[in-house]
Design a protein that fits this description.
The protein is α/β, with parallel strands linked by helices. It folds into two domains: about 1-145 and about 325-340, Glycogen Phosphorylase B (Rossmann fold); about 160-320, Rossmann fold (3-Layer(aba) Sandwich), CATH 3.40.50. About 45% of the residues lie in helices and about 15% in strands. It is built from twelve helices and ten strands. The protein has helices at about 1-10, 30-55, 75-85, 100-115, 125-135, 175-185, 205-210, 230-235, 250-260, 290-300, 305-320, 325-340, and strands at about 60-65, 85-90, 120, 140, 160-165, 195-200, 220-225, 240, 265, 280-285. Strands 7-6-5-8-9-10 form a six-stranded parallel sheet, with helices on both faces. It has a four-stranded parallel sheet with strand order 1-2-3-4, with helices on both faces. About 35% of the residues are buried.
Length: about 350
């Protein structure tokens, strides 16, 4: 998403520079020494950029993507206040249950950032409501998650078996849990004709492969990590995108798949309903209920007419409400209204 935001800003005629490569990330809540080191490094970056801006002039805008309790912006707010530069965040978040140890200190920094910002751009109504609850004086605005896709894809003609596809990293936590639920659900629809392409890699690859060892090799294709163009090629040869999406903020892969004419089957959880419209571009089921998820997959496997109707609807929805062009237009308006920037 950060790369797509940069592309959007470039599309609007702006030159985008990465001001600092400092990685602001505190993994553990009790890492006091890590926080001290990070603050020292951030102070050095503030000094470096202050000297640079004093000589060559400050930028027109500082744009910060995704400040949160583990990763605050300790540079931009200081510089923007010093040089009177507009400040914008995108996908800032606040979680009261993370107020422990040094994370509590970092969240105070995030709140300061959010309150200082000319506008905080939110990708889901869920996140917007949470941010407004934590910082009621802050200015917020909405920008729907978006993807940059090419020409409309052709929805595939009927095939002897339905090609399923999932794209996800293989790591602990929500990703591994989603793979676990997917394998459990698909085990309940083995009487139907389907094949699954799995795109992704990561430290939990062996555990993911073990989860799917119950299926014949002929049913599962392991692609590993692929480039975006190669992923798009797989989309064009598939019929249905399956990924439960435990804890997904929203899931860009859902939008990418729909843009290529693939209905989605996912859990009705977190930000997923913001990008998948139940009954229109896919089916959303009760989180954690593998039997309900299996029933939804089976429904679209056997109801070909409904699946193809959803395919067209999914493709149309993404290419209107979640397109690169619509995002660029919204971002232009927000920057004009809140930061005084015109293009």
């Amino acid at each position: 998403m950060a790369r797509q935001l940069i592309a959007c800003l470039g599309n609007l005629g702006h030159t985008v520079d990465v001001a600092s490569t400092l990685r602001a990330f505190i993994k553990k809540h009790d890492d006091a020494s890590g926080l001290r080191l990070l603050q020292q490094q951030a102070d050095q970056e503030v000094q470096r950029l202050s000297q640079q801006w004093a000589q060559s002039g400050p930028p027109s805008l500082w744009f910060c993507y995704h400040p949160y309790y583990k990763s605050p912006d300790l540079i931009g707010p200081v510089l923007c206040a010093r040089f009177n530069v507009p400040y914008i965040t995108a996908e800032a978040s606040y979680s009261a249950r993370r107020n422990e140890g040094v994370w509590a200190v970092l969240q105070e920094s995030v709140l300061h950032t959010v309150n200082q910002a000319a506008v905080n751009v939110c990708f889901t109504q869920r996140d917007k409501a949470g941010l407004e609850l934590a910082a009621p004086q802050a200015t917020t605005a909405s920008l729907k998650p978006f993807v940059h896709v090419g020409e409309p894809a052709c929805v595939l003609a009927p095939a002897s078996s339905t090609q399923l596809v999932t794209v996800a990293m293989m790591r602990r936590g929500d990703k591994l849990n989603s793979y676990r639920h997917l394998a459990a659900a698909l085990s309940q629809v083995q009487n139907e004709a389907w094949r699954l392409s799995i795109i992704g890699d990561g430290p939990e690859r062996e555990n993911v492969q073990q989860l799917f060892s119950r299926f014949p090799d002929s049913r599962i294709t392991w692609h590993g990590e692929l480039s975006q163009s190669a992923i798009n090629d797989v989309y064009t040869q598939s019929h249905l995108y399956v990924w439960p999406g435990c804890g997904e903020a929203y899931g860009l892969a859902y939008l990418e798949a729909q843009a290529y004419g693939l209905p989605v089957v996912a859990f009705h959880t977190a930000g997923v309903p913001e990008v998948v419209q139940h009954g229109h571009s896919g089916l959303l089921t009760t989180p954690g209920d593998d039997t309900a998820y299996a029933a939804a997959v089976q429904h679209l496997l056997v109801n070909e007419t409904e699946r193809y109707a959803m395919a067209h609807q999914a493709m149309q929805r993404v290419r209107t409400a979640h397109s690169f062009d619509s995002a660029s237009s919204t971002l232009r308006s927000l920057m004009q209204q809140h930061a005084g920037l015109s293009t």
